[in-house]
Amino acid sequence: AELLARRGAALKGADRQSVVGELIAELDNLRLSWNWAASHHRAGELSQAADTLFWLYESRCNCREGVPLFGHAVRGLQTTADQTWQHGLALGQVLSYQGHFCFRQGQHPQARELLQRSLALLETLVKDQPSAGEAEAIRFALSNTQVFLGMVTYMTGDYAEGRRLLQESLALKRVLNDRWGIVLCLRELGL
Asked: For position 71, what pLDDT does the model report?
């Protein structure tokens, strides 16, 4: 989790190719660690690792493995009664990333359902008035879910709602100064 968190910014930067190579060399260990954290309901570690692991799999177009990998984390987090903000954040993240991978495999109804669950959970967390650091992490996850749900929505023909979700995500990503996310939103709005 620490390795993934530490290399996340570089994965989205100019050193992308070398970081992908570095992380791919550790992929077996990353999978084992992820699955252990999921089986042991370790929300903090899952949340810490989720974004970078998602983008690593996305960079390699490995949606087929991404669906069950993030699905295992969803199942692990759903089996605990933990009600902390960090648990909710981790569950929102893994639902969103599993939903995106389902979308990439053409499983649009399942993707929409997972993304809508993520959106509802993350919106509830934001309304609970978390601290500044917590709020930023939740908003970051929320903006990712919005862009992914926007993609599914416009791909299934609801262009107005898809555009609305993408524009909301873009506005939030600008507030967060998430340049990678801003580019993603603008790309999807262009499409």
From this structure: 97
In the DSSP assignment, the letter for residue 131 is: -
Q: Which long-range contacts (CB under 8 A, 24 or more apart) does 117-121 make?
A: 118/91, 118/92, 118/93, 118/145, 119/145, 119/146, 119/149, 121/88, 121/91, 121/92, 121/95
Phi/psi at 92 (nearest 5 deg)?
-60, -40
Contact by Cβ (8 Å): 172, 146: yes
Tell me what percent of the residues of the chain surpass a pLDDT of 90: 80
Find where tokens 């089996």 sit: 79
Residue 142 sits at the vertex; the CA angle it makes with 98 and 83, to the nearest 5 degrees, is 80
The three-class DSSP label of residue 60 is coil
What 3-state class would DSSP assign to 64? helix
- Answer whether 191's CB lies under 8 Å from 153's CB: no
In this structure, the number of other CB atoms found within 10 A of the CB of residue 135 comes to 16
